[in-house]
Amino acid sequence: MNKDLKKILLTEEEIKKRVCELAQDIMNDFKDEELFFIGVLKGSVVFVADLMRCVKNDVTMDFMAVSSYGLSSQTSGVVRILKDLDFDIEGKNVIIVEDIIDTGTTLKYLYEYLKKRNPKVLKICCLLDKPERRKVDIKADYIGFTIPDEFVVGYGLDFAERFRNLPYIAVVKEEAYANK
Ligand code: PRP
Ligand code: MN
Ligand code: MG
Fold first, then answer.
1. Is 62 a catalytic residue?
2. Measured distance CA(3)–CA(127) in Å, rounded
3. What fold is seen in the domain 5-27+35-68+77-176?
4. Which of these, 54, 121, 120, 40, lies nearest to 82 by C-alpha position?
5. Which residues are paired to 3 by β-bridges?
6. Looking at the whole model, is its pTM more than 0.90?
7. Is the beta carbon of 103 within 6 A of some atom in ligand 1?
8. First CA to last CA across the chain, in angstroms?
9. Per annotation, catalytic residue among 50, 99, 102, 129
């Protein structure tokens, strides 16, 4: 394991199993209806790719790019939209797919923003939830894992853009980000 990492929090196998369970929950809720997935760049890329391959429904997908963290490990609290949707979501079954809810700033903003476009249904599917860190009131409809307040990377999640390619989720050592 990389010297900046402390331990593996979730293994590749644990993630794979849970992602398929989330897909099953979504299939149970939407039966044979069409779905529109919105992946939030860049953190959700790995998760949305795996999740949509487990779902048997007709899925259309798009990405949005928003940023609140940038290269810092602390949220700035400001959400910027860097790339909006290419498609109209009015009347659609929309599921926002995110890697993690931390303070909730990103998802709260996105949820309110997309709600205004009148989707038929707007749900949130998030792999990781850190409830201890919440600053704004937002809850996901589908949650993979509730995790403690530790700095995690891998499976799409980064620390200063590194570690997104790890197939597992690991905890970063405090000394690696203490002075950043
Ligand atoms: C991270 C993460 C979530 C968001 C969660 O994204 O992927 O999108 O922060 O934090 P919040 O609940 O406090 O808003 P980041 O801004 O680091 O961009 P990235 O996805 O490109 O890594
Ligand atoms: Mn993100
Ligand atoms: Mg990030």
1. no
2. 25
3. Rossmann fold (3.40.50)
4. 40
5. none
6. yes
7. yes
8. 21
9. 102
